[in-house]
Amino acid sequence: MRLDEDDRPASGADDPMRGYEASLPIALLRAREATMRRFKPHIDAHNLTVQQWRVIRALADSGPLDARTLSERCVILPPSLTRIFRTLEAKGYIVTVAAPDARRHTVALTDKGRTLYEEMAATSERIYEEIEQAFGAEKMRRLLELLIELRDTADALSREAPPE
Amino acid sequence: MRLDEDDRPASGADDPMRGYEASLPIALLRAREATMRRFKPHIDAHNLTVQQWRVIRALADSGPLDARTLSERCVILPPSLTRIFRTLEAKGYIVTVAAPDARRHTVALTDKGRTLYEEMAATSERIYEEIEQAFGAEKMRRLLELLIELRDTADALSREAPPE
DNA sequence: TATTGTTATACTCTATAACTATA
DNA sequence: TATAGTTATAGAGTATAACAATA
């Protein structure tokens, strides 16, 4: 599929909801589904859920984090995080660490957790590069840029005009 | 956030996994979460789940569809669709219709379902336009184009080299 | 014999409210 | 009094396998 600059209006205002396939939430969902399909077997093979893997990645990327931060970054609600902490701690991938504010539940990767991450990251990178190569590195870069910008825009909207 | 053309390499190869926030699946998830946050209260207000709303939209866009097609388009597994059919049929929004192939469970919107869709579509369009205006119509157009193309690319990869 | 859905089952996540502990 | 998390609970989605019906 290829839409060139002038073969349709820039705004969708005269194309109500722009058709199911091209609607923004659906397009985001389906793009995610199609790419995750390639990562999923790899995550399954390590007996992790997708959400557990997001937590491990976030910790590997940023060091110890509290529940609130992980909840935002991983898009996981606090009650789910509580359970994920229990599961990952039982498996020895994370530990609870002391924090200045005793209300905060802060966790960090263990050595075992970091080893797991490093193994998985290597394969993830290979899968990502396969997609990037097929899609085009420049387009991928632009897509990531737009996605992050869209998120910032929507977040800003929600701050100034909370949804309903 | 603004990344210009030359302040980082085009390929992420030397930036393993490109950092949590900029990884493709996470960027897709968070962009979706940030935009869906604005649509969600509107869907809640009509006592639908997000998945039920996707089914209704797909039917409104394409006319009667069978379970397999809806499963693909809406990214919902068949067992969930079975339950969603029951729920939406009980609420009077859809009906089962006869199909040439009696194995296929095909459903269509009722008048009540179409009325619901039209009411909701009007508000959805308003919410979408608010985001589009804040983000920029041209960037939104480009983003949708890239998302659809990424999906096609990943689907093609999965056809030629099934994931694991 | 292959395909389409449904059922069964187990697990996980989503979502909200109520509660506990700390600040 | 406000904040951070946990617990409780209900509901829905995810995922796989087994089954029924149809082609």
Structure notes:
- The structure is a homodimer of 164-residue chains.
- Chain A is mainly α.
- The first copy, chain A, has a single domain (22-156), classed as Orthogonal Bundle (Arc Repressor Mutant, subunit A), CATH 1.10.10.
- Chain A is 64% helix and 6% strand.
- Chain A is built from 6 helices and 3 strands.
- Chain A has helices at 24-45, 50-62, 67-74, 78-90, 111-135, 137-160; strands at residues 65-66, 94-97, 106-109.
- A 3-stranded antiparallel β-sheet of chain A has the order 1-3-2.
- In chain A, strand 2 (94-97) and strand 3 (106-109) form a beta hairpin.
- In chain A, helix 1 (24-45) packs across helix 5.
- The longest helix of chain A is centred in the C-terminal third of the chain and has 25 residues, at 111-135.
- Chain A starts with 23 loop residues before the first helix and ends with a helix.
- Mean pLDDT of chain A is 86; it is low at 1-16.
- Chains A and B meet through helix 1, helix 2, helix 5 and helix 6 of A and helix 1, helix 2, helix 5 and helix 6 of B.
